[in-house]
Amino acid sequence: MRGSIDKPIIEMANPRVERCHDCDVLQEIPTIGHGERAICSRCDAVLFSHKTLLTGSAIALLLGGLVLFFIANLFPIIRLNLSGITQESRIVTGIVVLTQHHMQPLALIVFITAIAAPMCRIFGLLYVLVSLQYGFSAPHLGSVFRWVKTLSAWSMMDIYLLGVLVALTKLGSVAQLILGPAFYAFAALVVLLAFIFVALDEHDVWDRLQYPARAT
User: Fold this and answer.
1) More confident residue, 158 or 194
2) What Cα–Cα distance (Å) separates residue 4 from each residue in 8, 36, 57?
3) pLDDT tens across 68-116, in order?
């Protein structure tokens, strides 16, 4: 024990083996509590430490994110007023326009990165965390959690939001642009999901998936 917050590698009945990112040595990881860190026995590098977001808190935030997701998709993201003519634009509007202009591959990419992948990440993580939190014996939890992590490469809500901001900058001089409720919900959802996936303790999730008897 190094101080009160570090734990060196020790023998375990059910070891989990990880590779040190500094010296590449494989070693067994002990069960550690919140506020503690696992330290490499060779080079003293921090192998991992428990993060602050617990399962129950993550579920509450994901439910809030689900509400934001539906607001972002059902309400207008921008209202454009040009010469007295007002036109509303939703996230799905761009997909429809691209399809009408025979750009189906690009429309499919926008649909996957701005709608499908974020929705699957939210529902997939809820499926895993609710099952762990309440002790449900749901099937394929490990596979679903792995897919949630894989989908992070396809969830590009921040890029879509940046595109909207660029459009606002370019069109602001020729038309009156009014941000709709979907814009604020979309921006809040981008920040919320980023926080959840950064702060969620993945090691704890994998531990509970591999050793369900340890779940509390």
Assistant:
1) 194
2) 11, 8, 26
3) 999 999 998 888 777 777 778 888 888 898 899 999 998 998 899 889 9
Tell me: do 43 and 66 sit in the same domain.
no
* Residue 206 token pair: 């994998």
Phi, psi of 6, deg, nearest 5: -110, 145
Residues 74 and 161 in one domain: yes
> Which single residue is written with the structure tokens 């921040």?
158
Q: How far is CA 103 from CA 89, 90, 166, in A?
A: 18, 18, 21
118 & 145 share domain: yes
Which residues, listed in sequence order, are joined to residue 24 by a DSSP beta bridge?
none
Full domain range(s) for residue 35? 6-49
- Count CB-CB contacts under 10 A for residue 25: 14
- Are 75 and 185 in contact by the 8 Å Cβ rule? The answer is yes
pTM of the model: 0.73
Q: Which DSSP helix (H) or strand (E) runs through 93?
A: helix 91-100
For the chain, what is the domain count?
A: 2
